[in-house]
Write a structure and sequence with these properties.
Elements lengths: L3 E8 L3 E9 L4 E10 L2 E8 L6 E11 L3 E10 L2
Antiparallel strand pairs: 1-4, 2-3, 2-5, 5-6
Length: 79
């Protein structure tokens, strides 16, 4: 991506969602979102204009009343 990308996710119920971005060595470089989302499909924009080119990992953590979800994906920033 260059320099922004859209992160898509879905939650089955009202959930507290935290999306964070980490460098390849595990250093947290950004919190994309940390708020409550209604059930359904969502997308958030991540702007990495201040980060150098490289490989990053984002994690989506969602906690609802009945379910917990966590997913990590790799992304490549090219400037």
């Amino acid at each position: 991506f260059n320099p922004s990308t859209t992160i898509e996710f879905s939650v089955p119920e009202l959930s507290e969602v935290n999306i964070s971005v980490y460098s390849i060595i595990g250093e947290k470089v950004a919190t994309v979102v940390n708020k409550t989302f209604e059930a359904g499909y969502h997308n958030v924009n991540f702007n990495a204009v201040d980060l150098p080119s490289g490989t990053y990992i984002y994690t989506v953590n969602a906690v609802g009343e009945n379910d917990t979800f966590s997913e990590s994906k790799k992304m490549m920033l090219l400037k």
